């Protein structure tokens, strides 16, 4: 784990770990990738582009919530008179949380902001940009995986904790893994600590389908970029022309899934291992799970939290919920 500006993203994820994970995934049937590896410097940039494409409604909806309901959030979150630690897991460019951060700083709330992200690039960007946008912010970025970063914050400070997990992050875990994640998170917190978490809601299936099948093809580039990363970091020879993106959404269970499929029979060498692909064989790249409000509340209760507040955008497409550890 690295803090602040001490390392580059490429040095953080140990070469051996990415090699083991990629080779395990490509030897499985069906083949899969770990979506946390999407975020190298180019992947961060492509994700920022995705957030701006017209079909990708998630950012606009959540931005609306953060702009319009900041005071409601502030009233609930500033319940700790001696200050608190505000920890954002998978912060990315913190575009939405910045609205809350501004509100907290302008209202002289005593807090330290700890963005945690696996990408050292985004932590560096936050250290470069946030103090300019929000003068006076107390910022300590940590480049790490979620729980490793959280343990680091707990070792640095015993103030009450408020955890942010925004955007697509929880949706990028299948429901059983997401529930386990919330349960583990609860174990790291003390009674009364708070969690503000974003869930994308079930809605018109075409709206969801189109969000991951954008006309400009940025989502496809984002997926293909992981093959480029593997080529660079694991001496692989994926030919990107031989793979295409495919997205599915199942409205009966809320499961959105991204794949890359092989356009031809081919052999790819990855870290010295030969990986065979049949024509039309898929690599499962990422899940984007959608929930109902009832399922979200159920999650809170099952993982040791009490739902305190649902905040929704005007279309009721996305919710940010505040849960209290009980
Ligand atoms: C889909 S982006 C969302 C960013 C931000 N939460 C938002 O709502 O705009 C996911 C972010 O989480 C980070 N991330 C993904 N898996 C992670 C992990 N296991 N530990 C820490 N960060 C992770 C990525 O680097 C990326 O910045």
Automatic annotation (TrEMBL):
A single BP term in Gene Ontology: methylation
The entry's keywords: Methyltransferase, Transferase
Coiled-coil stretches noted in the UniProt entry, renumbered to this chain: none
Organism domain of life: Bacteria
Gene Ontology terms for molecular function: methyltransferase activity
Histidine-specific methyltransferase SAM-dependent domain span: 20-324
Pfam families, A to Z: Methyltransf_33
Listed name of the protein: Histidine-specific methyltransferase SAM-dependent domain-containing protein
């Amino acid at each position: 784990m690295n803090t602040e500006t001490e390392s580059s993203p490429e040095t953080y994820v140990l070469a051996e770990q990415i090699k083991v994970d990629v080779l395990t995934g490509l030897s499985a049937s069906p083949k899969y990738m770990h979506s946390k590896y999407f975020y190298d410097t180019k992947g961060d940039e492509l994700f920022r582009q995705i957030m701006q494409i017209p079909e990708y409604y998630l950012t606009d909806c959540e931005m609306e919530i953060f702009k319009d309901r900041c005071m409601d959030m502030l009233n609930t979150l500033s319940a700790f008179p001696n200050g608190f630690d505000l920890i954002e897991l998978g912060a990315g460019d913190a575009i939405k949380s910045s609205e809350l951060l501004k509100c907290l700083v302008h209202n002289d709330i005593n807090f330290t902001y700890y963005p945690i992200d696996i990408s050292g690039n985004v932590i560096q960007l936050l250290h470069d940009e946030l103090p300019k946008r929000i003068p006076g912010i107390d910022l300590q970025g940590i480049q790490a995986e979620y729980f490793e970063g959280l343990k680091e914050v707990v070792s640095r400070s015993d103030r009450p904790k408020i955890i942010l997990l925004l955007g697509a992050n929880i949706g990028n875990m299948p429901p059983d893994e997401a529930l386990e994640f919330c349960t583990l998170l609860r174990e790291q917190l003390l009674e009364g600590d708070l969690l503000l978490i974003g869930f994308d809601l079930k809605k018109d299936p075409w709206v969801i389908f189109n969000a991951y099948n954008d006309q400009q093809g940025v989502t496809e580039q984002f997926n293909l970029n992981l093959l480029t990363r593997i080529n660079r970091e694991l001496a692989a020879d994926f030919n990107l022309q031989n793979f295409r993106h495919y997205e599915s959404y199942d409205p009966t269970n809320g499961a959105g899934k991204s794949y890359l499929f092989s356009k031809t029979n081919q052999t790819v060498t990855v870290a010295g291992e030969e990986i065979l692909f049949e024509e039309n064989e898929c690599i499962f790249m990422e899940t984007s799970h959608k929930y109902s409000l009832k399922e979200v509340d159920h999650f809170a209760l099952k993982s040791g939290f009490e739902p305190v507040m649902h905040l929704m955008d005007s279309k009721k497409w996305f919710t940010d919920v505040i849960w209290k550890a009980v």
